[in-house]
Design a protein that fits this description.
The complex is a heterodimer of chains A (284) and B (251).
Chain A lengths: L1 H12 L9 H23 L4 H8 L2 H40 L7 H16 L2 H11 L12 H27 L2 H9 L4 H16 L1 H14 L11 H12 L3 H32 L6
Helix pairs in contact in A: 4-5, 4-7, 4-11, 4-12, 5-7, 6-7, 7-9, 7-10, 8-9, 10-12, 11-12
Chain B lengths: L7 E10 L2 E11 L4 E5 L6 H8 L7 E6 L2 E2 L7 H7 E4 L11 H11 L5 H14 L15 H13 L5 E5 L7 H16 L4 E4 L3 H7 L2 E6 L2 E6 L1 H6 L4 H12 L4
Parallel strand pairs in B: 3-8, 3-9, 6-7, 7-8
Antiparallel strand pairs in B: 1-2, 1-4, 4-5, 9-10
Helix pairs in contact in B: 3-4, 3-5, 5-6
The chains are: A mainly alpha (284), B alpha/beta (251).
Chain lengths: 284, 251
């Protein structure tokens, strides 16, 4: 069993890099990569429209001018998705747990959780943002902020919680019932069993899809701009309108990528470390 | 009822899963410090019986008493009962995301509310007693099957149960690892632990059990001292079962 698990791990690690053992293989991989990208570059640069596109999208001076502005506005994106993600992780877990509650008495809660996920996964995010952003402040609820930013974040939390709750639920259901039996047999209550045995294992298993949703959320933080707040995308639109040049969009795109790629690698590393530590044959 | 209250008493216990009747009126009396082995073919109800005693399964009819107290009554607190009854499973069921030490201390800190330092000291002492002291910081998947099962036994023992239920604890082990687990159980028996053991290890049952019960189709068909059951079984079904076991070279 442990031997099989080890080969499985090895395969997983080398899937992207292929079988890059031996100097000859590395040489071939390098050459083919260089040749491939050289061909792509040559084709693009020699296309008829390239001089125009280059001016419109890759203007070095404009890039230098707009990058600090867009970068500053990007801080708002970071605030939006960090606050939203923190709320989502908690709220979605509550939803997933609610949906898993046993017994006929709790049926209404389960029903509620199901309806919630159906509703918010079904409506396009942008509509939820519009409806809440323009509708909710009109209610003039006392004690509730009416700023578009507040309602934009709320909309993202509501939509993404529906997705993330499903991810959590899949994780919870993937933990074998014998784990619950073992925990309950020791006298732990149902809540304690969830807290110490089921949820920790479930969350570890769903970290990759959770990250997937987190990256989606980061990108969708730009949608909040549609009801007013000036975040990176909105700022780049303003810059584009001022210069009739699309370079600020490229700056914004770069900012998003600079954030998501390291995050993805960090998560991969965390998962690999966890796996090594818990399973047979790895370093201590 | 006898003057001395038995550690465990089952009174006409029935249990079905859907249309399958798994237990069909089981009566059993286990005295203090007694070791009872349940033998019988797969599907005869051994595991279900143990899970019912631990209240992991709700029985359909009958009553179960723990030291004279009915634990199957409607308002019984299942968590309190389970605190008093330890169970060890065939597949170990250790918590893979926790170290050996955390596996053992989870229930003692969260259920018995022992201070962490005390719980860890107690757990370490128990692990030492069963030759696992150097494994306390390891994760379960890094241990051999025999070591994992010994940890599972320690985890149950740490709750200082009045009764231990062992559910075919050696069935998932490689043959060369069976002995280390059986010797742990023998040690527990010698220390006076009351145990109900479902097992396929007939020679172990013969050597360790005070009494052997043969389960057949959800009933205890025959019971008595190990020597008697294994050498002079009365019931034809018991004889058949033992003949098959002997033919398989397991006795």
């Amino acid at each position: 069993m442990s031997v099989g698990a080890e080969t499985g791990r090895g395969d997983r690690r080398s899937r992207i890099l292929g079988d890059l053992r031996g100097a000859r293989n590395i040489g071939i991989a390098l050459t083919s990569t260089v040749v491939f990208f050289a061909i792509v570059a040559v084709v693009i640069v020699n296309s008829a429209g390239w001089p125009e596109v280059r001016k419109a999208f890759f203007d070095r001076t404009l890039f230098g001018n707009s990058f600090p502005e867009v970068g500053h506005a990007f801080l708002l994106n970071i605030r939006i998705f960090c606050i939203a993600e923190a709320l989502i992780l908690v709220f979605a877990l509550a939803l997933a747990v609610l949906r898993g509650l046993p017994g006929p008495v709790l049926f209404p809660f389960r029903l509620l959780a199901v309806l919630y996920t159906d509703l918010f996964r079904g409506i396009p995010t942008i509509l939820v943002i519009y409806i809440l952003g323009f509708g909710a402040p009109a209610l003039q609820l006392s004690g509730v902020p009416s700023s578009p930013l507040f309602w934009g974040v709320t909309a993202l939390v509501l939509v993404y919680s529906a997705y993330v709750a499903e991810v959590y639920r899949a994780g919870i259901e993937s933990v074998h019932p014998s784990q619950e039996a073992a925990s309950r047999s020791l006298g732990l209550s149902r809540a304690q069993t969830l807290r110490y045995v089921i949820v920790p294992q479930a969350v570890r298993r769903v970290i990759p899809p959770l990250l997937n949703d987190f990256i989606g959320l980061q990108k969708d933080s730009a949608l909040v701009a549609l009801i007013g707040p000036i975040e990176a995308f909105r700022q780049s639109q303003i810059d584009v309108a001022a210069t009739f040049n699309y370079t600020p969009y490229m700056a914004t795109a770069l900012l998003f990528i600079l954030l998501t790629i390291p995050l993805a690698r960090l998560t991969d590393w965390l998962i690999a470390r966890d796996r090594r530590r818990q399973s047979a044959g790895g370093p201590r | 009822m006898s003057a001395k209250v038995s550690a465990l008493r089952l009174d006409g216990v029935y249990k079905s899963f859907g249309s399958a009747e798994v237990l069909r009126g089981v009566d059993l009396d286990v005295g203090e410090h007694e070791v009872v082995c349940l033998i019988g073919a797969s599907g005869s109800g051994k595991s279900t019986l143990l899970r019912c005693i631990n209240l992991l399964e709700r029985i359909d009819a009958g009553r179960i008493f723990l030291h004279g107290e009915e634990i199957t009554r409607r308002n019984a607190d299942v968590n309190t009962v389970r605190r008093r009854v330890g169970i060890v499973f065939q597949a170990f069921n250790l918590f893979p995301h926790m170290t050996v030490l955390r596996n053992v201390t989870l229930a003692t800190t969260r259920v018995l509310h022992k201070p962490r330092a005390e719980a860890e000291a107690d757990a370490t002492a128990l692990l030492e007693r069963f030759g696992l002291a150097d494994k306390r910081a390891e994760y379960p998947d890094r241990l051999s099957g025999g070591q994992q099962q010994r940890v599972a036994i320690v985890r149950a023992l740490a709750m200082q149960p009045e009764l231990m239920l062992l559910d075919e604890v050696t069935s998932a082990l490689d043959p060369e690892l069976v002995a280390e687990v059986l010797s742990v159980i023998r040690e527990l028996a010698d220390a006076g632990m009351t145990m109900v053991i479902a097992t396929h290890e007939m020679s172990f049952a013969r050597d360790t059990a005070n009494r052997v019960c043969f389960l057949d189709a959800g009933r205890i068909l025959e019971q008595g001292p190990a020597e008697e059951i294994f050498t002079r079984p009365r019931e034809p079904r018991t004889q058949q079962f033992l003949e098959r076991i002997i033919a398989a070279g397991r006795l």
